[in-house]
Amino acid sequence: MTETTLLAVELGTRELGFAVFQRGRLVQSGVKSLRRTNPHANRVTVLKRVFTSLIEQNAPSAIVVVRQEVNLEPQNDIRRRLFEAVKLMAENNKLLKHEYPMSTVKKTVTGESRATNRRVASVLCGIYPHFTNHLECKQKWRKRYIQHMFDAVACGLTHLTLETPNSNDDNEVKN
Question: How far apart are the first and last CA of the chain?
Answer without folding.
Answer: 22
